Amino acid sequence: MPAAHTSPFAGSWYPDNAGELDALLDDLFRRSETRCPHLFSDGLGFVVPHAGPAYSGTVAAAAYRAIGRQRPARVVLLAFPHHGGLDGVAVPGVETIATPLGDVAIDSAFAGFPAVPEERVCDHSFEIQLPFLQRAAPNAAISPLYVGRMDAGKRAAAAEALAAAWTPGTVFVASSDFTHYGRSFGFTPFPTDRAVAGRLRELDFECMEAAGSLASTRFLETVEGTGATVCGTGPIALLLEVMRRLDPGMYQATLDYQTSGELTEDFRHSVSYAALGYFPRRAFDLESPEREALLVSAARSLASYRSTRERRAIPAVSSSPALCARRAAFVSLHRGEELLGCVGNVMGRAPLAEEVAELALAAALDDPRFEPAALLPGPIDIEISVLTPLRRIFAHEECHPGTHGVFLRLAGRSGLLLPQVAAERGWCAEEFLGAVAQKSMVGPRAWRDPNARLYVFEAQVFGRKAAVE
Q: Are 67 and 173 in contact (CB under 8 A)?
C-alpha cells in the first residue's frame, strides 16, 4: 500500500494555498450560519454535495457544521467513482491523502472491506470532502469507502457490516449531488424558462422525500421513475440501509438546498445541491426555556387582541437559535376538555419565534369550525405541538397511533391529525388513517388509494392551563 497520495483536486477544484483555502472555508461556513442558524444535534448520517466548494460549499457547510458540533470520533465517508468500474464496496489503498491543509490519515480497517488501488478509484466525490473534514472534524478518524455496483442483497450485507461496526461517535456521510440539468448532462425534461427553478426543486424534493422514508428500494425506484440525474445513488442507498438498521424511527431533515443555476443565474446548466441529516427523535425537542418563550408569546398575542381588538402577533423573546428554525407547528386552544380552535402548518413558513404567535391568533380567530375563541369570555388553555419532519410511509403497519401523527395528500386535498388525537380515542392504525382521510374529504378508505401519499411524524406537545385569562 503506498504511503501517501496528493489530492489532484487542490489547485483546480479548490485553492492549493492553505491560507486561501482557509479563507474560502471561513466564508462558506459564515454563509451557512446566515442561511441555517439552527442545526439539530446527534445526527447519525448525512448526505453532502461534492461539487467545487465555490458552488456547493455553502450547502455542504451546513452538514459539516452539524458534524463539527458533534465532535465525532470517526467519519465513514461513502463515495463513488464517477467513471464506474467498481463492484461492491472498497477502501482506497493509501495511508494518507495530502491537501493544502495537511495530511489526512486514512483508516482502512473499518468494517473490513477490501482495498483497491487509489489510482483506480480516486474521485472528487471523496476527496472534495477532505478540506471540510479537516475544518469540522480535525480529530476524527476518516474511513473512506467507495461504493460501486451492488444488488439489493449485496447492499443489505454491506449495511449489516457497517451497522455492526458502528460505535458511539461514528458518523456516516454519503457524497452526492442531486439533479444535473442541461444539454451537457443530456437531461432536459422541461424547458429552461421562468418555471425551471421550481420544477428542479420539485424534482429534487421528490427524490429527497423518498430518501426520508429510509427505504433504499423506494429511493432508487423514485430516482429511476422520475429520471432524476442524482449521481450518488449508490452511497445514498447504502446510507439509508445503515440508518434503518441503527434507528428505524429516525427522521430526515433538510439542512440546506441550492442549485448552481441560482448562483450563476443561468439554468441552462444547473446542478442541485442538498445537505440532508438523519436524526433520532429526541434531536427535535425544544428545551424548557424555549417552550416557555413560545407559550408566553402565544398568551401575550391573545391577551393583546382581547384588550385592543388589534391583530398583532408578539414574537417570542429568546436568543435561542432553535426558535429561528422554520418548523411545522400547531396551536390548539381549549377550555378544559372543550376544543376552541386548532390551526397549524406542516411546512414551517417562518421562524418558530414568529410562527407560533401567528398560529395562536389564527386558532383564536380563523378556525371555521368554531366561534372565534378570542371573543369568548373566560380563560383559555394553550397547547403547542412542534412537529418533527414528515416521513413518508408505504404501509399502514408503519403508522403507530399514540406515537405518530399522520398527514395525507390525495387528489389536491390534504389533511392532518396530531398524535394526541389517536391517543385520546384509542384508535388503531386503520381507524386513525380512516379518520385523517375523512378529514381530508376524500373518503374514509381513500388512504388505501395507491395514489395517496401518507406521512407520519411525531410532536413535542406542551401547554399551560389558563394561559389567557
A: yes
Q: What is the spatial distance between Cα 4 and Cα 280, in angstroms, rounded to a whole number? A: 37
CATH numeric code, 391-459: 3.30.1490.150
pLDDT 10s digits, 411-450:
999 999 999 999 999 999 999 999 999 999 998 999 999 9
- Residues, the chain: 469
In the chain, where does the domain assigned CATH 3.30.1490.150 lie? 391-459
Give the model's pLDDT for residue 1.
53
Decide: 399 and 433 in contact? Cβ < 8 Å. Answer: yes
Amino acid letter, residue 95? E
Residues of the chain with CATH 3.40.830.10: 4-283
d(CA 162, CA 154): 12
Of 59, 24, 26, 62, the residue nearest 43 (C-alpha):
62
The fourth-level CATH superfamily of domain 4-283 is LigB-like (3.40.830.10)
Q: Cα-atom radius of gyration of the chain, to the nearest Å?
A: 24
Backbone angles phi, psi at 172, to 5 degrees: -105, 140
Tens of pLDDT, residues 293-322: 999 999 999 999 999 999 999 999 999 999
Distance separating alpha carbons of residues 306 and 309, to the nearest angstrom: 6
| Alpha-carbon span 355 to 343, nearest angstrom | 11
CATH of domain 288-382: 3.30.700.20
Query: Considering the entire predicted model, what is its pTM?
Result: 0.95
Sequence-distant (6+) residues with CB within 8 A of 337 are none
Q: Phi-psi region for residue 441, left (φ > 0), alpha (ψ -120 to 50) or beta?
A: left
**What's the rounded Cα separation, in Å, for the pair 97 and 81?**
17
